Amino acid sequence: MQKADHSGHRSRMKKKLAAHGLDVFEPHEVLEVLLYYAIPQRNTNDIAKRLIDRYGSLSAVLDASAESLKDAGLTEHQALYLKLFPDVSRLYLVDKYQNPQKILQFDQMPKYVINKFIGYEETENVLLVLLDKKGKEVYSGMIAHGDFNSANFSVREIVTLALNYGAVYAFIAHSHPSGVALPSREDVEATVEMVKALRLVDVTLVDHFIVADHDCVSMAESGLFESLGL
Q: Are both 158 and 73 inside the same structural domain?
């Protein structure tokens, strides 16, 4: 059987990319082009198709762990290269849309939080955002990795961060890898504990967001805070 002729294929794909951008590419072609820069002088079309078939979508490939990608046949270098894209996407969006003065309106928080979780939704992670009395962001970061009610952080640590940064308002968000953005009983109990602890140092927990499938549910807007007397 005659082998397929792939000579000039990369050149044609790059010309197509330069002329039209990635929007005209099929998902496996997007992945194929990304892999050009990690796998030189090899046909990456077949590799891309195999990865899409294995994981089901382009986003699922990029969200897969480095270990999983290595199990799928990539080298450590190639796996870590693909893992860059969700991280770069998250940092790009946060940088692009973050107010230069870091003044955050409360109604902007859902979009802000969702962008922070790009690349983090496949595992359970906890985000803390602290604002001063003017609404200026004084701290934002992932404070724990793991189930919210059993993650490797304590309410005391959050209170300490709030005090150290002179915060007046706090927002908490955590991801549900299950894809269901609804708070569990344990989530509710942990939130009540946190509200009470922060109040002792004059910090208001404004909201707790549950993030899943690039969407989030506000516990405050859902009426849960009010029903709990928070």
A: no
First-to-last C-alpha distance (Å) of the chain = 72
User: Beta partners for 182?
Assistant: none
The CATH code of the domain that includes 190 is 3.40.140.10
Listed in sequence order, the residues at least 6 apart from 99 whose beta carbon sits closer than 8 Å to its beta carbon are none
Contacts of 105 (CB under 8 A, 6+ apart): 135
Write out the two tokens for 14.
């790059």
| 122 shares a domain with 45 | no
Q: Of the residues 93, 120, 140, which one is the last residue of a structural domain?
A: 93
In this structure, the number of other CB atoms found within 10 A of the CB of residue 184 comes to 15
From the list 47, 91, 37, the residue with the least C-alpha distance to 69 is: 47
Distance in angstroms (rounded) separating the CA atoms of residues 178 and 120: 13
46, amino acid identity: D
Tell the residue number behind the tokens 């269901």, with chain if given.
180
Other beta carbons within 10 angstroms of residue 83's beta carbon come to: 17
Is this model's pTM higher than 0.90 or not? no
Query: Strand, helix or coil at 95?
Result: helix
Q: Compute the chain's Rg from CA coordinates.
A: 22
In the numeric block, which tokens belong to residue 187? 């989530």
Q: Give the tens place of pLDDT for each residue, 79-132.
A: 999 999 998 988 887 776 665 567 778 888 888 888 888 877 677 888 999 999
Q: Given the DSSP bridges, would you call strands 215-218 and 125-131 parallel, antiparallel or unpaired?
A: unpaired
Last residue in a domain, options 53, 78, 93: 93
